[in-house]
Design brief:
- This protein has a single domain, classed as UDP-N-acetylmuramoyl-L-alanine:D-glutamate ligase.
- By secondary structure, the protein is an alpha/beta fold.
- Helix 1 crosses helix 7, helix 7 packs antiparallel against helix 9 and helix 9 crosses helix 10.
- The mean pLDDT is about 95.
- Strands 5-4-1-8-9-10-11-12-13 form a nine-stranded mixed sheet, with helices on both faces.
- The protein starts with 8 loop residues before the first strand and ends in a 7-residue tail after the last helix.
Length: about 325
């Protein structure tokens, strides 16, 4: 797939390097070495979509440095449309240090000596977003980290305006990472305002508890009646969902986890890849809804088998084969 292909789905936000601790189970100060893996939730979703056969574009900002060049190449090699990628001449490309538990669970441990406000992703310009990106886009996937900084927050507002003009639907990945926010207390009203404009929400169960004081998708949908779908992921405990009139739970697949980084992003990519061809069916037929969530869960589970967020992402053939071997083939 050419990186110039018109995207069906746009993903706006950060692309960065996750510096994963090479010694799982150790606190930050005891880690002896780190390995860098491409990441950033919106970029992970974009790469995952292309691998699943969906044309995707990325809107974000990297520095004019070696890390920015390397991440640009990751997107190009993945086949992601980079028409919306900006470069900043002074601000560095973001790196985040990530410690891991012995079970593969990760914790964000900060940015070393660089302030969170100093990175290139905070400099994303709304006036630099090409209108042409939205011409063919059916969905715009937004993380919440760009809301933490004034300039990138303005870029989100511009993207929302372009999406409204083009009829592009809004998917919000709550993606709560307090370490990214200069003022975490400012997050709730900003995120609530974004959700009031969204069509779909995906978040982790602990994020739902933090922001909405519930882990019931129906309760969240009553609070934001504009939402047509709510997906609450819970790692090894599976996923709860509300899609149109359908609701339910899908258990997690049992796999040998190496690293959970990017599993939720892969889940979202898997879900959107099923929604692109048949949103109407997914929102009206309970079986179609459940199969879409189960497929997304398979994509997320397979991503935990390797290190990093992008390299282990499966293609659709691998996800479907995994489902067949798990005793639950999708209907054609």
């Amino acid at each position: 797939m050419s990186s110039a292909e018109s995207p069906q789905i746009l993903c706006l936000g950060e692309i960065l390097f996750d510096d994963l601790a090479d010694q799982p189970g150790l606190p930050l100060e005891a880690v002896q070495s780190w390995s860098a893996y491409p990441g950033g939730a919106p970029a992970n979703v974009a790469c995952g979509l292309v691998k699943l056969g969906i044309a995707a574009g990325f809107i974000g900002c990297v520095g004019e440095d070696s890390a920015g060049e390397a991440l640009t190449q990751v997107l190009i090699e993945a086949g992601v449309n980079i028409q919306g990628l900006q470069r900043h001449p002074q601000a560095p490309t973001r790196r985040v240090y990530v410690t891991r538990s012995l079970e593969g669970e990760r914790s964000f441990a900060g940015f070393g000596a660089v302030a969170t406000t100093a990175f290139a992703d905070t400099r994303l310009r709304g006036d630099g977003i090409p209108t042409a990106c939205f011409t063919s886009a059916e969905y715009l996937v937004l993380g919440t980290i760009p809301l933490a900084y004034p300039q990138s927050r303005g870029a989100v507002e511009q993207a929302l305006s372009l999406a409204k003009v083009q009829g592009t639907k809004i998917v919000v990945d709550l993606n709560w990472r307090p370490v990214f926010w200069p003022d975490p207390a400012a997050a709730i009203p900003l995120i609530n305002a974004l959700l009031s404009k969204a069509d779909f929400l995906k978040c982790a169960d602990e994020e739902a508890q933090t922001f909405f004081n519930t882990q019931e998708p129906s309760s969240i949908q009553r609070r934001f009646p504009n939402l047509r779908g709510v997906l609450l992921t819970a790692g090894e405990r599976g996923c709860r969902y509300l899609l149109g009139d359908a609701s339910g739970e899908v258990p997690a697949f049992s796999v040998s986890v190496a690293d959970t980084t990017g599993a939720g992003d892969a889940f979202l990519a898997g879900f959107l890849s099923r929604m692109i061809p048949d949103e109407a069916g997914l929102l009206t037929d309970p079986q179609t809804a459940r199969e879409a969530v189960r497929y997304a869960s398979a994509v997320g589970a397979l991503t935990t088998l390797g290190l990093g967020a992008i390299a282990p992402q499966p293609c659709s053939r691998e996800a479907e084969r995994f489902l067949r071997l798990s005793g639950g083939a999708l209907t054609p």
